[in-house]
């Protein structure tokens, strides 16, 4: 499955971010998709239509389930407002260890 995932990323023109082995980005003009590859795949995009295209491409290769918005990723709270500003917070983690 891992080899199939990396093959998909290379064919789909996703590029690895330096020093982040699990984060891949595909950019076309002003649109982008960021894919986090960990136990599962997580997608972030600045364009709803571009995100839909990326999901359809994934669905052709892998069985996928759309779980909707992602409130947490690896213990980090993720909030996306109406203008697609992404904010990350570890306040829940900090509160739990204090």
Structure characterization notes:
The protein is α+β, with helices and mostly antiparallel strands. The protein is 32% helix and 36% strand. The chain is built from three helices and seven strands, in the order H-E-E-E-E-H-E-E-E-H. The chain has a four-stranded antiparallel sheet, covered by helices on one side. A hairpin with a 5-residue loop joins strand 6 and strand 7. The longest helix is centred in the middle third of the chain and has 14 residues, at 48-61. The relative contact order is 0.11. The mean pLDDT is 79.
List the main descriptive attributes of the protein structure presented here.
4-stranded antiparallel beta sheet, single chain, 3-stranded antiparallel beta sheet, 3 helices, 32% helix, 7 strands, alpha+beta, 98 residues
The low-confidence parts are: none
* Count of distinct strands: 7
User: What share of residues are in beta strands?
Assistant: 35-45%
Give the overall pLDDT as a whole number. Answer: 79
Q: Strand order, biggest sheet?
A: 1-2-3-4
Name the assembly state: single chain
Brief overview:
By secondary structure, the chain is of the alpha+beta class.
